[in-house]
Amino acid sequence: MNEITKQLLGLVSDLQDVPQGAYNIREDGACAGRQNSEHIKITPKTDKPGIDIHIDGSTKGEKVYIPACVTHSNVEDLVYNDFYVAAGADVIIVAGCGVHTDGEEESKHNGIHRFFLEKGAHVVYLEKHIGIGSGTGQRIINPQTWAELAEGSYMEMNTTQIKGVDSTSRLTKAKLDKDARMVIREKIMTHGNQLAESAFEVELNGEGSGADLVSHSVARGHSQQTFRSRIIGNTVCTGHSECDAIVMDHGVVHAIPELTANSVDASLIHEAAIGKIAGEQLIKLMTLGLTEKEAESKIIDGFLK
Amino acid sequence: MNEITKQLLGLVSDLQDVPQGAYNIREDGACAGRQNSEHIKITPKTDKPGIDIHIDGSTKGEKVYIPACVTHSNVEDLVYNDFYVAAGADVIIVAGCGVHTDGEEESKHNGIHRFFLEKGAHVVYLEKHIGIGSGTGQRIINPQTWAELAEGSYMEMNTTQIKGVDSTSRLTKAKLDKDARMVIREKIMTHGNQLAESAFEVELNGEGSGADLVSHSVARGHSQQTFRSRIIGNTVCTGHSECDAIVMDHGVVHAIPELTANSVDASLIHEAAIGKIAGEQLIKLMTLGLTEKEAESKIIDGFLK
Hints:
Number of helices of chain A: 3
Family (chains A, B): Belongs to the iron-sulfur cluster assembly SufBD family.
Number of strands of chain A: 21
Shape of chain A: globular
Order of helices and strands of chain A: HEEEEEEEEEEEEEEEEEEEEEHH
InterPro entries (chains A, B): Fe-S_cluster_assembly_SufBD (IPR055346), SUF_FeS_clus_asmbl_SufBD_core (IPR000825), SUF_FeS_clus_asmbl_SufBD_sf (IPR037284)
Helix content of chain A: 10-25%
Organism (chains A, B): Caproicibacterium amylolyticum
Structural class of chain A: mainly beta
Protein name (chains A, B): SufD family Fe-S cluster assembly protein
Pfam family, one (chains A, B): SUFBD_core
Radius of gyration of chain A: 20 Å
Oligomer: homodimer
Distance between the termini of chain A: 31 Å
């Protein structure tokens, strides 16, 4: 595990060293470390790059780390990770991704994560993305998340992209069975000439299923963001999507949330608001002695917290 | 003017007879009556079907009626009406459309209305659509509305499609200059196997411009509705779009409101909610002695009022 990977791991997974318990660290397209635990078994795929993560039903609150790092230019990493979460399991999956560029060539990570939650499984999925390094090459992260939630299962997805990622195209798709519940919290900040696209599609197929999706984003500099969400209610279900965006400098934000009620018993709502930081908020903080820049950054920190 | 036109006029324009003041009545693709007033002049186009309506700057609160009726099957009517509203004018335009079918062939009205509002012009535009008759042919109304609002002008658009229209595809586009304001209120109820598509695109180009769009719709039977709105903020401006839909029986509603902030000073919001009538509302009215059907229709009447 090289020094840049260590630095990236600290940023995306809050790890100072290899973690206790189960983990798989991916470095420049290869495995830099892997460990199983009593309840969580990780095996490499034989037909394509990636791993299978089997989480058994006795897992209770355990964390498993699946970070991926690209440490130099001219790497295009593609990985398929499948998570099989057994009935009754309760697990926290930490799956950050860091991309470092030192040259003119781009460094790119494409991660395709699939989740199969059995009855009553409980998953918290944390995904933090960052780009670092002084190279001029593009830092690109394109994650895809596919989730199938069986009866009564629960998945919470927390994704954060704070800085340094020049281009991202995120796709999240989920299908929910009876009484399953999906909570998505997305935070994105873009700056410079960055591009970020985020698309969600959630199908509420089972009675009593529910999805709650909230995206907070900040577009600074000349960056551009597109947010798409699609919630499809096919039965008695509830869906909520919310997109709040702050635009600064010359940032551009595009929000396209879509609702489809295919059943009279589907109850779907969405809200979106795009605007700059309210003047009165700035003035209030400036009255307390902060400069305008400090006040701005305080407000943004709170918004993305 | 035949008897069916008279009946349709009553339904779409609340007219019992030809109105006072300026009007143009279109019947099965031809003119069934036309009258100018002191301030409003209507002239037929020479290059294509339709009329030019010139509203001078001294018009103060005057109504002009531009209804169109299709009274039998196998008519496909296409009309281009252009409204030139002079600086300072204040006018109410009543432009309903009624379609009657007596046979197996469809009857169809496509109306393309363009509005050119000069500085400070004030327009209220009322558009009511209805389909009647016992024929099995489709009753189709596809209206397009294009509006250009100069500095400080105001346009309010009230559209209502209550029943009998088997298929509609509505398109409304507007461009707003400095301090111009556009208010759109749409009401649609569909039943049977009806299809309704409604798309709005509003560009807020001038400083201080604003758009406020509210759509209320009810989808009953096996009807399907699609609502699209797009608000594009290119400067200091405010945009609001709201789509509330009630689904009943096997109705399907699809809402896709889109916001684009191309300026840091654009403040844009939207909301949407799709669901069935709340149980507690029904129960409350039933406690007061109404049957379930009566309670339902009371709630829907209120929602579409």
